Amino acid sequence: MSAAGESGNRAQQMREKAQKLTEAAERATDPQERQKLQEQARGLQEQIEQQGQPGESRSKGTGGRRNQ
């Protein structure tokens, strides 16, 4: 696998993990746990952006907060 392919695969995995953290935050009933999960998701999203990978999560980032 090429370096670009590995980088893209890693970015995809990071996006998926960030999405899972966001979804877990939506389900969390404890406000502190929700905040912790949201911060972890944001941290991953920032890492993705710093790597120069266009992140799907950037457009989806606020979608999970509609139920709050």
Give a brief outline of the structure.
The chain has 68 residues and is mainly α. The chain is built from three helices and no strands.
List its salient traits.
single chain, 68 residues, mainly alpha, 3 helices, disordered C terminus
Give an overview in words.
The structure is a single chain. Helix 1 (3-27) packs antiparallel against helix 2. With 68 residues, this protein is mostly helical. The chain is built from three helices and no strands. It has one domain. It is elongated and about 45 Å long. The chain has helices at residues 3-27, 31-50, 56-60.
Based on DSSP secondary structure assignment, what is the total number of beta strands?
A: 0
Helix content: over 70%
The best one-word shape is elongated
Tell me the major beta sheet: none
- Outline the low-pLDDT stretches: 55-68
- Helix/strand order: HHH
